[in-house]
Amino acid sequence: MTRMARTGFTLIELLIVIAILLALGSIVAVNFLSYGDQAEVDVQKAQFDQIDSAMKGFRLDFKRYPSEDEGLEVLWNRDALEDEEEATKWRGPYLEQPVKSDRWGREFDYVYPGDLIGESFYDLVSYGPDGEEGTEDDITNHDRRKTEDGEFEQEEGFTGASEPLGS
Known about the structure:
By secondary structure, the chain is mostly helical. The chain is 31% helix and 5% strand. The chain has one helix at residues 11-62, and strands spanning 109-111, 123-126, 139-140. The chain has a 3-stranded antiparallel beta sheet, covered by helices on one side. The radius of gyration is 26 Å and the shape is elongated.
């Protein structure tokens, strides 16, 4: 009796291959999604660096940071100045494009004088991807000054982002 040669895959073999491919695909997708989330956080931190440069330019011209009433808008709009007599000092725009919200479309929390590391600093906070205040994913303009345990360094003569007035 002659036996016929087998020329295909069984349904079970095909299902096993599909299951393996789906498992591998989900592992890859999860890894890429976490990189995407971290990329958004990194872009937000870079935006804070850009805002910090603009704040330093404003401070050079006015010997102060913008008030809370002026907010960040004064960095691109002279009309946002509280004191009209100061308009002659304005050498902006300090930011080329208005920055009205964070990477997730929510307004920044701008405080001056600041609470996080001292009154001679300003605080700029994005509540991160979850949008909730006081959670681990909050991002501030001072994050580059955090130690490994998440606390802010208190250095004398700090010359990084948001350095104190008079430095």
